[in-house]
Amino acid sequence: MSKTVEKQYRLRNDSREVFQIEARVTKEYKSGDEGAEITGTITHPVIKPFKYVVEFGGDFTKTKKNFTPEMYLHTAISIMESQIESKKHVDTRLWVHKDSGLTETSPL
Question: pTM, whole model, 2 decimals?
């Protein structure tokens, strides 16, 4: 499995709000066009820790044969940052299966 990436993320409209993201590849396959699963644990000083699980598959990955697990990892971190911005601070599964890259969500 790939390494863990730790990153601080500050809200765009309130840079005093800092979240810590710890993300890692939890499922990877032989080829990038099979997708990946990335799990991130997000912490904040005054919010209960929560998880995002980002699953890449379907039409989105059909053209990603050369994608590495690390590429999926960094793409997932960007998606997690968007979720943090939208104030969705609960355990959430995010599916990225459409060509467009649009994300579908559901509670974990």
Answer: 0.94
pLDDT tens digits, one per residue of 27-42: 999 899 999 999 999 9
Counting the structural domains of the chain, the total is 1
What CA–CA distance (Å, rounded) separates 43 from 9? Answer: 10
- Tokens of residue 31, six digits: 């080829």
Buried b (16+ CB within 10 A) or exposed e, 94-108: bbbbeeeeebeeeee
Residue 68 CA to residue 82 CA, distance in Å, equals 22
d(CA 91, CA 53): 8
Residue range of the domain that includes 41: 5-107
